[in-house]
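Appendix B, example 12.
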Amino acid sequence: MPELIEAAAYARAAGRAVGATIVEVMLADPSWVRGGLSGDDLASALVGTEVVEVGRLGKVVLLGTDGPTLALRFGMTGRLLWDDDAPIDELVYGPKRSEEAWVRFALSLQHPGEEVAHRLAVEDARRLGSVELDADLSDLGPDAVGIHAEQLADAFVTTTTPLKAALLDQRRLAGLGNLLVDEVLWRAGMHPETPAGTLKDDELVLLADTIALVVAELSKRGGSHTGDLQPQRAPDGVCPRDGAPLVRGRVGGRTTWWCSLHQRRPRWGASPV
């Protein structure tokens, strides 16, 4: 499942499009476009425009042209490809192969002075991603990369939402997904059901620092699935830190794993499953 680490890799790959002109738009799946637009609508808006910048906010990759800005969301199984080269080889919970039939959207791009056009495509087996023009992203919180304790305090103020659910809420903090949040909380020694609004100043600093460390380290390793906790996310899993049994539960509607020893449980909360 693409989280901010994967989206950042996609954005870096898409950066090769800067300076190129969009010469063709392919929309294989009309349900993949937001805003009620058709493939013809996308082509009319994009063909002939030049890609001038590529960015990212949370899990959304943004291709800015000298016309509209294109927003790409990747759902659970979306992968961006540049000339069939994927910056992420595979997604841990996605298909282990590539299929042309899973390409939902593609651009053909021509750089000045080059005879052969390049192809930027998005492959999405489960069809949960989307493409959108000039998307309104004002409902997204600050990007998790570079987050500060003060921003976390603002995001969590007065809420009793469990910490795991609050970190997954893209309106509070953009970019973290299930695997990254479990890894962050495990490293920080915080129980996922801790009410987010009860964190003290030093805990907020620890959480912000741990997010930065995890994102940087796992980016170098190659993806959100490369955390220390990941291999132990199983019924017989043990904590890589202290060897205690892991607990499996559901927090914020998502499967969650935590250490039974060093991630102390709050006095209230749902029972493990």
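The chain is about 25% helix and 20% strand. The CA atoms of residues 142 and 173 lie 5 Å apart.
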